[in-house]
Amino acid sequence: MTQNREPTKALERAAEPRRWPWELYAPRERRRFLLVLFLIGTSNFVDKNIIGVLLEQIKIEFQASDTKLGLLSGIAFAFFYATLGIPVARWADRGNRKFIITVSLAIWSVMTGLCGFAATFWQLAAARFGVGAGEAGAIPPAQSLLAEYYPPTERARAIGIFMMSSTAGYAVALVLGGWIAQHYGWRAAFAVVAVLGMGLVPLTHWMLKEPRHAPGFAIQPNTRESTFAAIYALLGKPAYRNILAAIVAYFLMAYGGMVFIVSLMIRAHGLNVAQAGATFGVISALGAAIGTFSGGALGDRLSKRDIAWLPRVAGVGMIAALPLYELALYAPTIVVMAPLLLLATAFMWGVSPPMYAALHAVCGSKRRAMAVAVAFFFANLIGLGLGPVIAGFLSDTFAVAHGTAQGLRYALMVVMVVFLPAGLFLFRAARFLKTDSED
User: Fold this and answer.
1) Contacts of 238 by beta carbon, 8 Å cutoff, 6+ apart
2) Structural domains in the chain?
3) Distance (Å, rounded) from C-alpha 206 to C-alpha 200?
4) What is the pLDDT of residues 73-98, one digit of tens each?
5) C or N terminus of the chain, fewer CB within 10 Å?
6) Distance (Å, rounded) from C-alpha 387 to C-alpha 113?
7) Residues 48, 104 contacting (CB under 8 angstroms)
């Protein structure tokens, strides 16, 4: 009897109505998933960015140069974060994304805790390698899930809300990390955020759902396509290549420049670590809230008329941010710097929702995590990996003639120029987006 029933079950499954993944869940469930992913993203960016507010204390304890600090905040984190991202993404495009995210969260939280126990600079660098390895399984699978929880016409806004987790994490890292570091030292800051991350592990396991496990899921993972074939297909699209180039340039600024902003406030404007962390944390949070909501809403609205508006909106934001950042960095006082930095931050974060929505439009549903991971591979190795090192090296070089405060100021002003080519790449991507779109 069992043998006779198997073909019947197979026929019943084949006869089930096939639905798009975003049709499987009610709006309330989607909001719940988005909240959980937002908290995961916040933890991800807290652990990634807390190093920025701790650099001055680490510099003093280990007698490190700005170049070494750039190495610590850049390539020490980015190496495994970038290289492991592609195999993990391939796994995510075929397997259980909820499981991948849960395990990754546990790993990066443990490794962040170990940063606080480092006895030497190089032990701290090794622990940061581990944090990067764990976080490789966070953003690509999370964005892949979001792109299936939400339909294309609502995707930019959902991604925008999710990307705000980076700002929330950045603000928590700066404000909470700065306060803890000021009162208890940099080691305690690492320990506290590690505990907060571990607290999210059971929530992630129980609250998220994998659409591929739901009855009637319309898109089956592409198990036959090799990793090389998937990458080749993505890079064969002009729109994808130009979006990729824009993301690389964006990361070069976002990490090469932003990681030293707190240090600039301390050196050039006389703030202590808690004041600088709180100031930049509040500016980042407000700017990101304004930028991501505006960028996501505008991208969704204009893309209904023409999907090419997604990269166009992002391109305008990139180019508009450049003069604002230059003025903010050159400002003589923190009172002048703060409002300019707020406006620049709003434009910077406003580009993320339409830029990543454009990425998902061209990658196709079966390569979502891979598309993000390939972009992050290049963006993190060059932007996150080399950006802080380049900024630190320029700072040390300019400091010989201009002092440490002015040297850092000039270095960051040079790094910010990459906004211009980033915007031009996005305008070029808009020319090919309709042809290359798979959504």
Assistant:
1) 428, 429, 431, 432, 436
2) 26-205+227-434 (1.20.1250.20)
3) 10
4) 666 676 777 777 778 877 887 788 88
5) N
6) 25
7) no
